[in-house]
Design a protein that fits this description.
The protein is mainly α. It has helices spanning 2-8, 15-39, 43-56, 60-73, 76-89, 94-107, 110-123, 128-140, 144-157, 162-174. Helix 2 (15-39) packs parallel to helix 4.
């Protein structure tokens, strides 16, 4: 293509156009190097690349990759913060809230976990996995009656949900309700 431009002539790029093109190229290289490093298990390098890519351009896909790399690296608080920013840009994406709830569960922050579940239920109130996560948050908050209610709802939505049956049984047993 440059050959044709040289042959037939074209107007030269302005420094601003050249800078934007270089910036876009650098963003793409950092983003895909970070993704590749994450796939290969090199979380340190992945986090560095993806963080630098986000400094160039705020991109939801890159932020998602960064949150995944941070979770795998064990930096749960930072991963949760990036998930919050991602949820602000995509408020109707239930999967983001589910990942937030799982990260909050790993941090044992049951208030944040229940918050994420409540936001997700505003989007999709009939998701059994979400009810299960919310029940886990309720158990962490010592609210066994709501936990049992959520687990019962999860079982009603999906009758073959073995984990929900088990957790409901354990919760009832811990409360001394043997019937």
């Amino acid at each position: 293509m440059n050959f044709f431009k040289a042959l037939f002539g074209s107007k030269p790029k302005t420094p601003e156009e050249d800078r934007k093109e270089t910036e876009e190229h650098n963003f793409d290289v950092l983003k895909y190097d970070g993704k590749q490093a994450m796939m290969q298990g090199n979380m340190e390098y992945a986090v560095k690349c993806l963080t630098h890519a986000l400094k160039i351009k705020d991109d939801p896909e890159t932020r998602d990759y960064l949150s995944q790399a941070l979770i795998r690296k064990g930096d749960l608080l930072m991963a949760y913060e990036h998930l919050q920013k991602l949820a602000e840009t995509e408020p109707d994406n239930v999967k983001i809230y589910i990942r937030m709830a799982n990260v909050a569960y790993m941090m044992e922050d049951y208030n944040a976990m229940s918050n994420a579940c409540e936001k997700a239920m505003l989007v999709d109130k009939d998701m059994p996995e979400l009810m299960y996560l919310y029940a886990q948050a309720c158990i962490g908050l010592k609210d066994s009656s709501n936990a049992v209610a959520m687990l019962t709802k999860a079982i009603n939505l999906r009758e073959d949900y073995g984990d929900a049956y088990l957790l409901r049984g354990e919760t009832l047993l811990a409360d001394g309700k043997l019937e």
